[in-house]
Design a protein that fits this description.
Strand order of the largest sheet: 4-5-8-11-14-17-20-23-26-29
Shape: globular
Largest sheet: 10 strands, parallel
Radius of gyration: 24 Å
Number of helices: 7
Structural class: mainly beta
Oligomer: single chain
Helix content: under 10%
């Protein structure tokens, strides 16, 4: 049996068909490779072929010492030019340090790139001025007309400049379920008030279910394009949050700001230059005692997105979580370590199967053996082969029923438990004592569950998995 969790499928502008792309599929058309060194990561990320690149260890990019924005002699930083048709991900949430993933450079934009389940750290040196303008270090930079980019379930902390910046006429980008922490400037979308020739009609971006913790501004800062920002959670915002400037149109829905500082602006339409429009729908500010921070709107009564998506609603389907649930949902499901099942699906199933939830969804049973995909992921079983029986061997010992099962140690996004019923209708794990008893060399853990056996009524057991 399985229970529910949020859907982590691609939602937003990156999912639209345009510019020769049917949404964003990354390296789905190419082989899977596993890298653990800087040299291998550079090789596969920069090649012209499609690849699904699993990063298996923390990697320091500073030996490249090639950051175009420069660096202090004592603190070199590096950058990798990610080529088109790539998926970069980690099963365990490894860390990329002291460097940038750069998507597009000069006139050479890239397309169809997915980056998931990675941490980014240590791209920072102290700036006594407090402006942080000397080095243009971004953890991820999307530029030069790059399009169809999906950044999902990543964790960004304290970069010198931006965390995820989008500029130079780039387009069709979704940033979802990410954590941004201790950051001055999070996401710049559009680099200049004078870039209308390249940016008008582009810079269509979606930001949803991100957690902004102790950040100052740009969640995002928009120019010219269209932004749909929904179900984000911001804690301790220090400055100008969602900025919709210079002809940009920004729709903000079901967002929750907890304890913004009294001088902050969760939403604003200007930043010293031309204004944009911003509409706020069903969103909440939970103020500090004595504070009265409010949303600021501009042009909300007749809000419309900019061409080519003129209209009052985003041009794609999406579901809004109730704003009261946003803090719990986002803090529990944003960041790394939450999408192991989705990554397993991408490794096990073809693109056609991935598009068919009856084949690759958590409840599907492609082997027709009654064991669904979520259980097989958790137990380390292949989806297309019949599961061995029994899944949970049972023995009687000193008046207890003792069941054992093996599960993947790295499947941290799924909780497995043994549940008990006397009538096959009501199930509970109450009274079941569960403990890990061993680990195997192939990355599995052996678990044991005990429950007292009584004379009556009958006792039934089942294995459940919950995300």
């Amino acid at each position: 049996v399985l229970t529910g969790a949020p859907a982590f499928d691609l939602v937003g502008f990156a999912g639209l068909a345009s510019a020769g792309q049917s949404g964003t599929t990354g390296g789905a058309a190419g082989p899977h490779v596993r890298v653990a060194t800087l040299g291998d990561l550079v090789h596969y990320a920069q090649t012209n072929r499609p690849f699904r690149i699993e990063i298996a260890a923390d990697i320091d990019l500073s030996p490249l010492a090639n950051a175009q924005a420069g660096f202090p002699p004592e603190y070199p930083t590096g950058e990798i030019l990610v080529n088109s048709n790539k998926t970069l991900y980690s099963r365990t949430g490894v860390t990329l340090r002291r460097g940038s993933l750069r998507i597009g450079k000069g006139p050479n934009g890239k397309h169809n790139i997915i980056i998931r389940n990675l941490k980014f750290r240590d791209l920072w040196v102290d700036d006594p001025s407090g402006q942080y303008d000397q080095y243009g270090w971004d953890y991820i930079g999307i530029e030069a007309g790059s399009h169809h980019i999906w950044i999902d379930h990543c964790d960004f902390e304290q970069s010198y400049d931006g965390a995820v910046d989008i500029k130079g006429g780039s387009d069709f980008v979704t940033v979802s379920w990410c954590v941004f922490r201790r950051q001055k400037k999070c996401s710049l979308v559009g680099a200049s008030d004078n870039a209308g020739a390249t940016d008008r009609g582009r810079l269509n971006v979606t930001f949803h279910h991100n957690w902004y913790d102790q950040v100052e501004e740009r969640i995002p800062r928009m120019r010219f394009g269209n932004a749909h920002v929904f179900n984000i959670y911001a804690t301790d915002l220090a400055g100008k949050g969602i900025q919709s400037t210079t002809e940009a149109a920004t729709l903000v829905e079901h967002c929750f700001f907890r304890h913004p500082r009294p001088t902050s602006r969760p939403t604003i339409e200007a930043n010293g230059g031309p204004t944009g429009t911003v509409k706020v729908v069903n969103s909440v500010i939970e103020n500090l005692p004595g504070a009265n921070v409010q949303f600021r709107q501009h042009g909300a009564s007749n809000f419309t997105f900019n061409p080519p998506f003129a209209g009052s609603a985003p041009p794609y389907p999406y579901s809004l979580d109730p704003v009261a649930q946003v803090p719990w949902i986002v803090t529990n499901y944003a960041g790394t370590g939450k999408i192991g099942f989705e990554l397993w699906r991408s490794e096990q199933f073809s693109p056609a199967d991935l598009a068919n939830p009856d084949r690759s969804g958590p409840a599907a049973t492609p082997a027709n053996d009654g064991v669904n995909n979520l259980i097989k992921y958790a137990l380390g079983l292949p989806p297309f082969e019949p599961a061995p029986r029994p899944l949970t061997p049972l023995r009687l010992e000193a008046g207890d029923a003792v069941l054992t099962f093996r599960r993947r140690a790295d499947a941290t996004d799924v909780t497995c438990r043994i549940e008990v019923s006397s009538d096959l209708k009501r199930w509970s794990s109450q009274g079941v004592a569960t403990r890990r008893i061993a680990a195997t060399p192939d990355g599995l853990e052996v678990w044991e569950a005990r429950h007292p056996i009584t004379a009556a009524p009958a006792t039934y057991f089942r294995l459940s998995a919950e995300r």
